Structures are given as structure tokens and as C-alpha cells.
Amino acid sequence: MTEKKKINSRSEKTKEIKINSKEELKSLAEELKERLFGNIKEFREEIHEPKKSALKLEHAPEIKNDISDKEIEEISKKITDKDIEEEKKNVDGKKETLIPLEDYIKCAVHLGTKVITPHMKKFVYKRRADGLAVINTAMIDEKLREAISFMAKYDSDKIYIVCKREAGWPAAKKFEETTGIKSFTKKYPPGVTTNLILENFFEAEMTMICDPWIDKNALVDTVRLKKPVLSLCDTNNFTTGVSKIIPCNNKSKKSIGCILYILAREYCKHKKIPFHATLIDFAGELE
After folding, report:
1. Residue 147: which of 281, 259, 272, 256 has the closest Cα?
2. Phi then psi for 39, rounded to 5 degrees?
3. The domain 40-283 is classified under which CATH number: 3.40.50.20, 3.50.50.60, 3.40.50.10490, 3.65.10.10?
4. Are 244 and 228 in contact (CB under 8 A)?
5. From CA 287, how far away is CA 103, in angstroms rounded?
6. Residue 213 and residue 51: Cα distance in Å, rounded?
7. In this model, does residue 50 exceed pLDDT 50?
8. Max CA-CA distance within the chain?
9. What's the CA gap between 110 and 145, in Å, rounded?
10. pTM, full prediction
């Protein structure tokens, strides 16, 4: 083969490699685009339409008269022995629960709001005289068990938890301390798991949030990546985009603390991580 033919042959191979590289890069770019934004239009239609509806409903009488976080917090502090006995009647006492039934009730995990969305209706079994929805405690325990099994599939460095509501900050930090799962309180940095150029970018396989509306930025980011979301959901929440629901009072310190305590304890048990915290460490004094 002459020198000229050799050069032409090398040139053709180089050209072929360049073409292949371009095609591969294009393919990778398309794959990333599809992964991040492929079904985002559909998701926006699903997630934002309910939220828009919720925002519109804020001006409607039933939403305007809904109970505030502060009021829920105060009611949660005033659970009486009579309330405990009343709730125990509605739960099969022979069925073992993750924590004593009395502790669930003392932490007011069963108290909802005055609003019940279509998404959460199946978890509510009655209304109190003051109009508050009451969540079925047996279903809370059942959904917690499902959530624990789901969480156990992932290592702690592949999960993160977001809690923008101030009432949950102490419990979220304790959750991070005991499990090693990264927590974001006060503010979640949008794009931290989707924007590769951010300095604090990291990859995760599952997201935990404490309210689908308050923590919606983390929910949207996770759905963009087509990853699962586990969320604490109250009776006034829409659950679009949430993979695993834990129905509960997600407004008060005691309730959020109770739920995160159970999740942390059982997750550590599955992962053989030493766990020495108590319910009080997460929820504060119950009385």
C-alpha cells in the first residue's frame, strides 16, 4: 500500500471514529434529555393542575376556614386520656403495631385537617365534632411498614430527606444523625440532584419529603429523574408524583417526630446500624 493510500485509509478511519463519537454523544445527550425531561410535560399536567386547583381553593370557603399549622400544633399538645380511649376503640387491639397505640395517639399522628382531598379520602374514617378529619391509625401503621420495606432497598447515601416546615426541623436533623441520610431543612436548593454544573450536585436514588406541597421543589426534581418519592401526607395534600404515601398529621412537631423516629429505627434495624435514640429524642415530651 502506497503512503498516500495509507494516509487516506487513516483519514477515513479517523472520520469514521469522529462520526461514531458524535453519534454516541448525540445518543447520550438524547438519553439524558429524555431521562430529565421526557415526560415532564405530562408530569406538569399532573402535578401542577392539582396544585393550581389547590391554590384556587384557598379562596373558597372550605379552604379559607381550614385549620392553621399553629392550631394543629396546639390541638396536638392537648390529647387527653379520653381521646386515647376513644381512638383505641377504632383499632384492632390484638394487632401488633410498630409502637404502642397510645404513643401514636399521644403524638396526634391521626389528626388531619378540615380539608380532605380526593387523594387522601381513603385514609380518613371520620370527622371530629370540631370538623377535623381523623386518619385511620391502623392504616398509618400499615403504610409505615410498606415505607420501611421500600426504604431498606437503598443505602443511606442514596436517599435524602427534605422538610421545609419548621415543626419538623429537629426530627429531620435527628433522622440524619441516626441514619446517615442527608437532610435539607429550611430551604431545599432546586436542581441539586438534576443540574450537574452545581457545586453541591449529588446523585440520589430516592427522595423523602414531609409535605408534597411545601416540599414541591424536591418532588418535581425527583419526578424529573423518574426516581421514587416517599412522602408524609396529610388529609389536605394532593399526592401526584408520590410513590409511597404515609398518611399522617404532617403539621405538628410530635407527629412528624413520631413518624421519622419509626422510619429511622426500623431503617437502622434493616441496615444493622446502631440505634440508641428514643421517641422523645425525635418528638419531644409526649405528655
Report:
1. 259
2. -110, 25
3. 3.40.50.10490
4. yes
5. 10
6. 8
7. no
8. 100
9. 16
10. 0.78
